[in-house]
Design goal:
Elements (H helix, E strand, L loop, with lengths): L1 H9 L3 H4 L1 H12 L24 E3 L4 E4 L5 E5 L35 H18 L5 H17 L25 H4 L7 H7 L7 H4 L4 H12 L9 H6 L11 H15 L5 H9 L21 H6 L7 H14 L16 H11 L6 H12 L4 H4 L13 H17 L5 H14 L10 H25 L15 H22 L76 H14 L3 H15 L1 H7 L1
Antiparallel strand pairs: 1-2, 2-3
Length: 614
């Protein structure tokens, strides 16, 4: 007992050694629960105060002596914290302080800048296909500058509002009464972000660019449009003379550039290159930089969901040339690709007709004046001028010559075929005589197969866009999810069906049929003769006008009449309809468009006959 008493007496209490410090440490320790000695069992250093090795760790990770309650500078490592206690469940997880979401950085851009980038990609694609290098830097660039100047978006004395179009005060009265009637996907939400009294004149009557950007971006940056002027661009009611940019308008720019440099690409060739994606047109959002926020109304402005139509692009090209007040284009000489002498030879090879047809085509083009450079050269400012469809006009000349030689009335062509067959069966003939019936039997299955192949390509055409664009930011996650699901399903179905991998787009070519291949099992009529069928005399129409019938008995004097769109195959002979359908497949245009050009050629060729009929 004495020894124990001495030992107890030798250990002073905390209050006797450091009264104030012990009270502070006890209060600190009492306010913080400990994690036990289990976390500090690997630390064997003695306490500097009492020399004991009984360490503990509080909830802040600081080491303290259990004997004298002295804290030291050592702290527990994060890896050694034993946060999971046996026979316990985690009730909640601390998320820490919530931070405000930072908005994704995006560029401030305008609609005209987006179309400018797309035109640049199209010009580079044409240049890569072998077109004159001037088509990008000299031709299309100047056309685009002229367009921006005419629409007062740039290159003008008045500071542009950068909003389409720069209207006057009288035109700025396009208010909610006219705009509300226009169907729009954001019509319901547009009135919410629009301030009271906000009209079109606020954007086009001298506001500075910073004020415009603030007004447009604050109200509709994330809801209505990703671009600055996308909302206003869509709001303005489209008029007949408002040449607003669109994706078909980009093809009109391309075709005008091709005509200026007289490239070896017709409009039908351009549309074929567009379909096989050799020229950028579909999914134009992927050609814009990633920093541009394409959403809302921008989707409807740049969206492409239909194939471009020949007649629509031709009409846009004619109107665009007049709107820009372009000077006369370089003349179409006899060596130019758009001249009938060159194009007709190309299409004669395409449809497997004899080369001797070229002589008759030359005579018909000379008599009608269609080979004259003054009639072929495009002059946008010419009164009642039009952009000539050179490819369709060349095809119309071939059809008129076929009607001159074979009548195409379901009677005369078959009689001539019997005569040609009898001459070919005779011995001693060096060159075979052209047999229309044999040519028909050769071309009919080729035409049907080409049409069926094109319909399948249209059905399999992929409209998907690699870049996800949505009408609103809230629906972007849903679109991404659907896209992933669609890709997974397509990958699984392709594995199950064992479909071959896609070989990619075929190489660019202006020919649909190729008759130079060996061992095709098809007859090539290029070297056949027209001997005995027709003889060229001083008078082109001697002996030929008796069986000729006019495609249009009477021409409409009304310029608004669209009688050529009312083509009915039942009203014409089947041979004539077959020839129209064949060239329609070759050019990928409507049959009525070719029939209309045939009527125009016949009008110039048979003026005397039309006058006697009227």
């Amino acid at each position: 007992m004495l020894a124990v008493g001495i030992l107890v007496a030798e250990i002073p209490t905390l209050e006797s050694r450091h009264p104030s410090e012990s009270r502070h440490r006890n209060a600190e320790w009492a306010s913080k629960p400990t994690l036990g000695s289990r976390a500090a069992r690997h630390y064997k250093e003695p306490c500097p105060q009492c020399s004991e090795v009984t360490w503990g760790v509080n909830d802040e990770g600081r080491f303290y002596c259990k004997s004298c309650h002295t804290f030291i500078e050592k702290t527990k490592d994060v890896e050694e914290l034993d946060l999971f206690i046996h026979n316990s469940k985690v009730q909640s997880v601390s998320r820490g302080l919530r931070k405000a979401k930072t908005e994704t950085f995006s560029w401030e851009w305008y609609v005209c800048e987006g179309f400018q980038l797309i035109l640049l990609r199209q010009a580079e694609a044409l240049q890569a296909l072998g077109v004159d290098p001037q088509v990008k830097d000299h031709v299309m660039c100047n056309l685009w500058r002229r367009y921006l100047h005419k629409t007062k978006q740039a290159y003008c004395k008045i500071p542009p509002s950068r909003c389409w179009p720069s209207q006057t005060l009288s035109e700025s009265s396009l208010c909610s009464s006219e705009l509300d009637s226009e169907p729009d996907v954001t019509q319901a939400s547009e009135t919410e972000g629009e301030t009271e009294g906000e009209t079109l004149s606020d954007y086009s009557c001298g506001l500075s660019s910073s004020d415009q950007c603030t007004t447009a971006s604050e109200s509709s940056w994330s809801v209505h449009s990703g671009s600055v002027d996308g909302r206003l661009y869509k709001r303005v009611k489209k008029k007949k003379r408002d040449w607003k940019m669109s994706m078909p308008m980009t093809l009109a720019f391309c075709y005008l550039s091709l005509l200026w440099v007289r490239a070896s690409i017709t409009l039908s060739d351009l549309l074929r290159l567009v379909f096989y994606r050799h020229v950028p047109y579909f999914s134009p959002e992927q050609y814009l930089p990633e920093k541009t926020n394409v959403s809302g109304l921008d989707v409807t402005i740049f969206e492409v969901k239909t194939f471009p139509v020949y007649s629509d692009i031709m009409e846009l090209t004619t109107g665009l040339g007049t709107f820009l007040e372009l000077p006369p284009f370089p003349p179409i000489t006899q060596t130019c690709y758009y001249h009938p002498n060159v194009l007709c030879m190309k299409y004669l090879m395409e449809v497997n007709l004899p080369d001797e047809f070229q002589n008759w085509i030359y005579l018909v083009a000379k008599k009608t004046g269609l080979n004259d450079a003054t009639n072929l050269t495009l002059d946008p400012m010419k009164k009642r001028g039009r952009c000539i469809p050179y490819d369709i006009q060349a095809v119309a000349l071939i059809i008129v010559v076929l009607k001159l030689l074979f009548a195409l009335n379901d009677d005369w062509e078959w009689q001539m075929s019997k005569i040609a067959r009898s001459r070919n069966n005779k011995k001693g003939e060096d060159i075979a005589v052209f047999d229309f019936e044999n040519w028909y039997e050769t071309m009919r299955p080729c035409m049907d197969e080409a049409r069926r192949t094109r319909e399948e390509e249209y059905a399999r055409f992929s409209w998907k866009n690699e870049r996800v664009v949505t009408y609103s930011q809230s629906g972007k996650s849903k679109v991404l999810k659907r896209k992933r699901m669609a890709n997974n399903l397509q990958r699984q179905f392709s594995k199950l069906s064992g479909a071959a991998a896609d070989a990619g787009n075929p190489g660019p070519s202006s020919f649909l049929f190729n008759w130079e291949e060996q061992n095709t099992g098809k007859i090539c009529f290029h070297g056949h003769s027209l001997k005995g069928i027709a003889q060229q005399g001083k008078n082109l129409l001697s002996g030929l006008s008796t069986n000729y019938w006019l495609s249009s008995l009477k021409k409409c004097t009304n310029s608004f009449c669209k009688h050529w769109k009312l083509y009915e195959a039942s009203n014409f002979p089947s041979s004539y309809d077959f020839v129209l359908s064949l060239f329609s497949v070759v050019l990928n245009v409507e049959v009525c468009a070719i029939h209309y050009e045939v009527c125009l050629v016949e009008e110039k060729l048979f003026q005397w006959k039309l006058k006697t009929m009227t």
